[in-house]
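Q: Please design a sequence for this.
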């Protein structure tokens, strides 16, 4: 259940009076999600999504608002937050920070086809091209420094082999990325399939930017490839891989340094999710009664990437 703070029709109707979005017709809680309370709101003008923010990090909400405004202004398929009659987007409702968004069309792709993969690569390439000029700043909360600090907390819960693997990987990445400056920009930070919406083959929206930050663009791309192209055994589907990367590279060719570090970044992002899911299970249980994601999926992906099963990167324009 993802409605942790219930709302009444009267509360939401009064809230909507701050905007020019019409009168409330229906209100429905959204069961998906793990951190915030989400509602589908229908007015006599349109369909909207209302989000109440339930956990910490509220100081970062202005960054998310600015980033979404910036990307929406550049015609990218993101839900730019609705601003009230005074031009303010970030509100409070039921004692929680609140944002109202237009509802994006479509549904999550469980098994994306090649056209859908290409659409994602095209959009991510355009987004990264634009986001390099975004002036907001938020450090990546799940970067290599975070991995180095937090991995020791889960070591007692791992087998001897997995302890050695995690420690060895972190040390190796620290060496590989030392004194390296990769292209930077604003990134989504969690662009899994369930954070996209497709209307048929058309990418209707990229949602849930609450892991957004400024950091290595390659980090964002590696998260996408590990999720979107990996089959049930963790191996990369080469057709999906080529579709995403071919479309992406048409907008933002990778530097020589990025190409060299690509296998490392795929392993680093697999390690990032392996660790974060282990922490939720063993160290930082969620504030609400939810079922944590299984860390084993990303332990498997890390093993596959260590096996060297990574296809060659296409050249820009291929």
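A: Design:
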């Amino acid at each position: 259940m993802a409605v942790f703070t219930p709302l009444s029709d009267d509360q939401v109707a009064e809230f909507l009076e701050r905007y020019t979005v019409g009168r409330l017709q229906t209100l429905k809680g959204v069961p998906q999600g793990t951190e915030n309370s989400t509602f589908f709101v229908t007015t006599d003008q349109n369909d909207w999504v209302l989000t109440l923010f339930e956990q910490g990090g509220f100081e970062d909400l202005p960054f998310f608002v600015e980033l979404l405004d910036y990307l929406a202004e550049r015609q990218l398929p993101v839900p730019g937050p609705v601003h009230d009659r005074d031009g303010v987007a970030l509100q409070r409702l039921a004692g929680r920070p609140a944002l109202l968004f237009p509802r994006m069309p479509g549904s999550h792709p469980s098994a994306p086809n090649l056209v859908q993969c290409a659409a994602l690569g095209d959009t991510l390439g355009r987004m990264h091209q634009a986001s390099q000029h975004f002036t907001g700043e938020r450090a990546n909360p799940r970067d290599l420094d975070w991995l180095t600090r937090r991995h020791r907390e889960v070591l007692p819960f791992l087998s001897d082999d997995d302890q050695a693997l995690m420690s060895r990987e972190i040390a190796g990445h620290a060496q590989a990325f030392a004194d390296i400056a990769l292209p930077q920009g604003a990134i989504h930070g969690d662009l899994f399939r369930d954070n996209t919406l497709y209307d048929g083959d058309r990418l209707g929206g990229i949602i849930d930017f609450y892991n957004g930050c400024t950091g290595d663009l390659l980090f964002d791309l590696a998260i996408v490839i590990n999720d979107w192209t990996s089959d049930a055994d963790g191996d990369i589907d080469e057709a999906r891989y080529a579709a995403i990367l071919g479309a992406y590279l048409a907008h933002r060719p990778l530097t020589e340094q990025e190409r060299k570090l690509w296998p490392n970044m795929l392993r680093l992002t697999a390690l990032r999710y392996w660790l974060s899911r282990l922490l939720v299970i063993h160290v930082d249980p969620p504030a609400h009664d939810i079922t944590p994601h299984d860390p084993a999926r990303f332990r498997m992906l890390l093993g596959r990437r260590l096996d060297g099963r990574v296809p060659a990167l296409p050249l820009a324009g291929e």
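Q: Thanks. Anything notable?
A: The mean pLDDT is 95. The chain is about 40% helix and 15% strand.
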